[in-house]
Write a structure and sequence with these properties.
By secondary structure, the protein is an alpha+beta fold. The chain is 57% helix and 13% strand. Helix 3 packs antiparallel against helix 4. The radius of gyration is 23 Å and the shape is elongated. The relative contact order is 0.10. The N terminus is likely disordered.
C-alpha cells in the first residue's frame, strides 16, 4: 500500500507543474518577475538536456505572460514537434496565435480537413511505434496460423485478416517514418521580432514585398548568408533577415 501511495504521489507531482502552468495561460496568478524567474529555471533545464513537451509548453506560457508572443508560439511549436498530440500545447498555440496581428493570413480549413489533421496529430511517434509493433505481431501470428492450418475452407477469413494487418502495418510504418523525418527536419519558424519585411531579392531590396508581425508562423525554404527565404501561410514568399526568425529546429 505504501508503494502504491508513493507511485501515485510521484505521478501527481510529475503532472502538477504542467497542469498549473496550463491554467496560468488564462489566469494571471504571478507577476512578471516571477515568470521571468521561472523562465530562467526552465531554460536551465533545457540547457541541461531535459527536453520534453511539458517543458516547452511551460516556457511558452512564461513568454506569453512576459508579452513575447513570438517566443511563446515558437515554444509551443517545439512542444508539438516532440509530441504532436500534446493537448495543452496545441490549445495554447491556437489561443496565442489568434491574438497576433497576422492571424488572418492563416487559411481556414473545412471541418473534414481539420478532423484529418486532428487524427494525424493524435498519432504521435509513440502511438505509431506501438501500432507498427502490434500489426507486425498480428501479421506474423496470422501467417503462422495460415501456414499450419489444416482446414482449407476457412482460409479465406485468414487471408482477409492478413490483408488488413498488412495494410495497417504499411500505413503505420510509412506514417512513422514520415513524422520522424518531419520532426528532425522541421522547417517551420516564427517571426520573433516586432515586425519583419520581406523582399523579392536580397541585392535589390527596394520596397518590401510584404511586412509581417511578431508571432507569424512561416516555412523556411532556403537560406543564404544572413537571409532566409520564407513562405507565408497565404503562399506569398520573400527574403527576410534571419535575426527576425526563431526556428523550431535551430
Amino acid at each position: 500500500m505504501k508503494v502504491l501511495s508513493a507511485w501515485l504521489l510521484a505521478l501527481f507531482c510529475f503532472c502538477l507543474p504542467s497542469m498549473l502552468m496550463a491554467e496560468d495561460l488564462h489566469g494571471y496568478v504571478a507577476n512578471q518577475t516571477e515568470y521571468a524567474q521561472k523562465l530562467d529555471e526552465y531554460h536551465q533545464l533545457e540547457k541541461n538536456g531535459s527536453l520534453n513537451p511539458d517543458l516547452y509548453n511551460n516556457i511558452g506560457i512564461c513568454y506569453y505572460h512576459l508579452n513575447q508572443n513570438g517566443h511563446a508560439i515558437l515554444s509551443f511549436l517545439k512542444a508539438l514537434n516532440l509530441d504532436s498530440s500534446h493537448h495543452e500545447a496545441m490549445q495554447n498555440l491556437l489561443y496565442v496565435q489568434s491574438q497576433t496581428s497576422d492571424a488572418s493570413l492563416y487559411p481556414k480549413r473545412s471541418i473534414l480537413v481539420q478532423k484529418i489533421f486532428d487524427f494525424y496529430n493524435f498519432l504521435n511517434l509513440k502511438r505509431l511505434a506501438y501500432l507498427v509493433l502490434l500489426t507486425f505481431l498480428l501479421l506474423g501470428l496470422s501467417l503462422h496460423l495460415l501456414w499450419h492450418r489444416i482446414n482449407y475452407q476457412e482460409k479465406g477469413y485468414q487471408l482477409l485478416f492478413i490483408l488488413i494487418c498488412t495494410s495497417l502495418f504499411i500505413f503505420a510504418s510509412t506514417l512513422l517514418i514520415t513524422k520522424f523525418q518531419r520532426r528532425n527536419h522541421n522547417r517551420k519558424a516564427v517571426v520573433i521580432s516586432f515586425s519583419a519585411s520581406g523582399f523579392l531579392n536580397i541585392n535589390e531590396q527596394g520596397s518590401p514585398r510584404f511586412r509581417v508581425s511578431e508571432g507569424l508562423i512561416v516555412e523556411i525554404e532556403r537560406e543564404m548568408a544572413d537571409w532566409s527565404y520564407i513562405r507565408l501561410p497565404n503562399g506569398l514568399g520573400g527574403w527576410v533577415e534571419k535575426a527576425n526568425l526563431g526556428k523550431v529546429i535551430p
